Structure formats: structure tokens, C-alpha cells
Amino acid sequence: MTAAARPEQAANSAGLELSDAEFASLSQMIHRETGIVMAPSKRALLQSRLYKRLRSHGLDSFGAYCALLESGDGQFERREMISAITTNVTRFLREPHQFRELREEVLPPLLEHAQNGGRLRIWSAGCSTGEEPYSLAFTLLDLLPEATRHDIRILATDLDPNVIRKAEAGRYPTESLAPFSPEARQDHFRPTGDGFSEVRDKARRLVTFRVLNLLDDWPFRGDFDVIFCRNVVIYFDDATQRRLWTRFAGVQTRPGARLFIGHSERLSDEARPYYRLNRGASYVRTDRDVPQQDTQPARAGADRSA
């Protein structure tokens, strides 16, 4: 988890502290907009991350900032606030055992189906700055170099427009490519000579990035062969988590479709009829249908952690 260099000290030195009422108001707004739960223990974190937003508007109190958020012009600033409080912790090929299962067990039959005229759809939900969906694209290309010639697509979504812009740029510090072999780096990245490398066009063509709040209405109805939603749902309240797991099942109607989640996340009891655990690395979709009412959006959801 990354954070600015002790901004909470700057906030305190300036005499700006969140009152109980301001923390309650901001916490309620964040939950309403995103589904993220701001526990009392997160108070100092919230204060430190929003201090820069106050400075950017020339405000001298958190009360004035709350008033801005609630004003008619507050919609844009609410998006900036969510961007400020969410954490973008990601890296290429995170959880290697999951990518090993994907490469060795899940993708080969799906790619054979695509080569015979079928379609393959993968969703990276909560994609952050793009390392996960590009890792998926690289895995596809390693197995099928001509993947772009077939009906194979990766949808990558995140709540935060700022991280989506970074993901679309596909530009990363060269040191972050350490998980890849020298051959893979050559195949999938182009060094830019300034300590950065860019994702090559072949992988880019497989990925479509979109801004999406997970608990809003989804502008698609599936059907996804593979969903990666890792270290996302853990930051929501229990009701939001239960709804999300069953909604994922609603866009994975094919028995055998795979759901990959974070190592500290667990499916809710309500979702267990729709998935079975596969050796700890993924969940396999069963043939149980999801009732229509359980696939509807519930207002209060988001994409990543606080």
C-alpha cells in the first residue's frame, strides 16, 4: 500500500483536523458513492489523503470541503475524493499460482474453442493501473500468439478515471517488469529509454478499459468465461459483498467458467450454490441458475480499497 510522505503531519501542523461530525459525513458519503467502509481506525488516513484536496481548492477547513462536496458543483470533486482515498496496490503477475492455473488448465480449452470460431471473454474487475489485465493479455499471447485474430477480448474496469487513464497509457517503470523473463519483456514491452517501458500494441488490442462502479448497473450481460476480481470485495460491507458474488455468477452462466478472487477473500454463503472451489486457486461455476432479482444492482458499491 502506498501513501504520500506523512501528509497527516502537514494536516495537523496546519491545525486542520476532522471533527466527529465531518468524519461521519464523509464516511457516509464514501459508503453511499462506493460501498467502501471507512472504519473509525481509518480517520487519520482519510484526513491525510483529503488534505491535498483542501489545498487544491484553497479551503481552510474540512467543514468547507464537506460543503463543497454537497454543493451543486460537488459531483466532480466527489470523483476526485474517491480517487484520493482508494489505494492502487497492484503488480504484474500478482498471485503467480493463479496465473499458473489460468495458463495450464483454464485457457487451453477456451483458446481451442476460440480458434474454432468461438468467443472468449475475460473481465478484470477493479483493474487499477492495468497490470492485471495486461498480465492476462500476455498470458493469452504466450499461449496463442495470433490471439488478436480471433474473437478474444479482455474487459478491464475500475471506478477511478485517473487509474483508467494510466492503464490505457500502458507505461510502466522498467523495474516493475521483474516478474517477467527477459524473453517475455522483449515480446510484450518496448523500452522508451527513460526508465520506463510501454506495452506493445498486440497486447493493447486485446484489452478494453472502461470506468465502472461495480454496484451500478452493468452495461453488459456477460457471458464471461473468466473473471478476475481480486482484493476488491474485501473492502465492502457484508451486504455489498453478498450482492456482488451473486451478480458475478449472473454474468457467468456457462458451467465451468472461472472466478479468481483475492487470497484473503471468501465467497458468501449465498454464492456457494453457484461456485465450487478448485484447489484453492479459483472458483468453478456450477450449473445452478441465478434468480433474476439477485443480479440487479444495489446502489453503494465500488472497485477497490481504502
UniProtKB/TrEMBL annotation:
The reaction(s) this protein catalyses: L-glutamyl-[protein] + S-adenosyl-L-methionine = [protein]-L-glutamate 5-O-methyl ester + S-adenosyl-L-homocysteine
Keyword Methyltransferase: yes
Annotated keywords: Methyltransferase, S-adenosyl-L-methionine, Transferase
Enzyme class: transferase
Keyword S-adenosyl-L-methionine belongs to the record: yes
InterPro entries hit by this protein: Bact_Chemotaxis_MeTrfase (IPR050903), Chemotaxis_MeTrfase_CheR (IPR026024), CheR_C (IPR022642), CheR_MeTrfase (IPR000780), CheR_N (IPR022641), CheR_N_sf (IPR036804), SAM-dependent_MTases_sf (IPR029063)
Record-annotated CheR-type methyltransferase domain positions: 11-288
Example of a GO MF term: protein-glutamate O-methyltransferase activity
EC number: 2.1.1.80
Region named Disordered: 286-306
GO BP: methylation
Residues that bind S-adenosyl-L-methionine: 88, 90, 94, 132, 158, 213-214, 230-231
Cited function: Methylation of the membrane-bound methyl-accepting chemotaxis proteins (MCP) to form gamma-glutamyl methyl ester residues in MCP.
PANTHER family from the UniProt entry: CHEMOTAXIS PROTEIN METHYLTRANSFERASE
Protein name: Chemotaxis protein methyltransferase
Organism name: Rhodosalinus halophilus
Native organism taxonomy: Bacteria, Pseudomonadati, Pseudomonadota, Alphaproteobacteria, Rhodobacterales
